[in-house]
Specification:
Layout: H1 13-23, H2 27-35, H3 48-58, H4 62-70, H5 74-83, H6 91-98, H7 104-113, H8 121-128, H9 134-150, H10 156-160, H11 163-169, H12 175-191, H13 193-207, H14 212-227
Helix pairs in contact: 3-5, 4-5, 5-7, 7-9, 8-9, 9-12, 12-13, 12-14, 13-14
Length: 231
């Protein structure tokens, strides 16, 4: 995203929120999001393509991202991840954000648009992957999944270190943690032929695990990895 011309009307949090409200507010859209588990006290019902269009118009802006996060509006917080400047994000800021994650969409949006770009992403995974709030733990495994998809500079060895975290969290029976763990395992296995083997082996072990959650994750990941062969 490029910087704004100096003569352009500046984007402020007030202006951005007004623009989001202009595209939201339809009860059917809000109800539809809620039906898919996207619930938040300040939900406007704006669709993600519209939020991305606005992000492209704004460009990167650390100060504005902070103001949008503080608004507590769901769509403004998604937009904040899209326009934040990764080099200016601190570990304290990332940990402050995760305490505000209240649905799967905000977890996944931050993982996709920002968290995987941070140089301390591995520290966040380790910090968030243990027992804790549902959407904090979900964020750890969404972050692993996005690293597997986007960070092409990483070695396979680095992803092997995530497998014990997946195995440890597989017994967590909370819906969004369970789905996040499966997602992370599947994306690691699809990254390369060398990673498919240990990921599939772990999936098969989990498929016969002691908990219903582990068995669900194992079956879900086994089914996808058996039919997907990375080149």
């Amino acid at each position: 995203m490029s910087a704004r011309p100096a003569t352009e009307r500046p984007w402020t949090a007030t202006r951005v929120l007004a623009e989001l409200r202009r595209h939201g507010g339809r009860p059917a859209d809000i109800a539809g999001m809620a039906a898919y588990g996207i619930r938040s006290p300040r939900l406007l019902g704006v669709h993600v393509p519209e939020i991305r269009r606005l992000a492209r118009a704004i460009g990167r802006d650390h100060r504005l991202a902070g103001a949008l996060w503080r608004s507590r509006v769901h769509e403004a917080r998604l937009l904040a991840a899209m326009i934040e400047e990764p080099r200016r994000v601190t570990p304290a800021q990332a940990r402050r954000w995760v305490r505000g994650f209240d649905n799967w969409a905000i977890c996944d949006g931050y993982a996709q648009d920002l968290l995987w770009r941070l140089p301390f992403a591995d520290d966040l995974v380790r910090s968030w992957s243990g027992p804790g709030p549902e959407f904090t733990r979900r964020a750890a495994f969404a972050l692993i999944a996005e690293l597997a998809v986007h960070d092409r500079a990483r070695s396979d060895r680095e992803f092997l270190r995530f497998l014990p975290l997946i195995r440890s969290a597989a017994s967590d029976d909370r819906r969004y943690v369970r789905k996040g763990v499966s997602w992370a395992l599947r994306q690691i296995g699809k990254r390369s032929p060398a990673l498919r083997r240990p990921a599939l082996a772990l999936a098969r072990v989990l498929r016969h695990g002691d908990s219903a959650s582990a068995r669900w994750i194992g079956s879900d990941a086994t089914r996808e990895l058996e039919r997907h062969r990375p080149s």
